[in-house]
Amino acid sequence: MRKWIVLALIAVLALAAVLVWRANGERDQAEMQLGIDSARVLSQSFARANQLKVAGIAGDLVARSTDPGLIHVLDVSQTMKAPYAVDYFIDLSQIAGNAYAWDAAHKRLVVEIPDVTVGKPNIDESAATVSQTGLYISRAAGLRLQQAAAQALANKASEQAYLPANMERARTAAQEAVRANALAPLRAAGIEAVQVDVQFAFRRNRNDDVWDYTTPIEQVADRLARMKHHGRTAAPGSKEEPK
Fold first, then answer.
1. 52 vs 208, which has greater pLDDT?
2. What's 233's DSSP letter?
3. Collapsed DSSP state (helix, strand, coil) of residue 136
C-alpha cells in the first residue's frame, strides 16, 4: 500500500513539473513575442517619419564687420545685433531594426537613436539693429558689411548651438521626445505594458546599468524561433526539449 502511495506521489510531482515547465515556456514565449511585436510597431512607425524637432535655442547676438571702404584706405565698420534661433533634430527614419533591445524581466524596450543634428541658424535680419562708422560708406561697402555681419552672426549662432551644455540639453530633450513618439504607436496598437527607454548609440558602452540585461531584438527573434521549432513547452528530459 505504501508503495502505491509513493508511486502516486511521484506521478503527481512529475505532472506538476510538466505543467510548470509548460507554463514557464509559454510565459517565456509570450514575453519574447511582446518584445518582437513592440519593436516591429516602432520600426514601422519610425520608417514613415522624418526629422523630428526635439529642441531649440534662441537669443540675441552681436557681430562686428569691417571693410576697407571705397579707396581701401578709409576703413568702415558695422555692428549688427540680431535675434537668432537654432533647432535640434533626430532623424527617426535612421533608427534601424538593430537599434532595439528587449529587457523581458521589466517589459522594457530599449531604443538606440543617432545623435542629435544641429539645424541651420536662423538670423532674423529684419529685426536687427545696425550701427555703422566711417567717413563714407558706399553702397557696395555697405552690402559687404551686411553680408559679413550676417555670416559672423551665423557662425556665432552655430558656436552657441554646439556648446556642450546646449548639446546635452538637446540630447535630454531628444530622449524624451523619441520616447513620447514611441509610446503613442505602441498604445495605439494595444501594447500597454511595455515601457520605452531611449539611449544614444554612441553611448552604448558607457551605461552598464542598461546594456547588461537587455538582449538585441534579433537574438530575441532567433531564440523564439528556435523555441517554437524545437517545442519549448515539451516536458523536461524529453527528446523535443531544446539544447
1. 52
2. T
3. coil
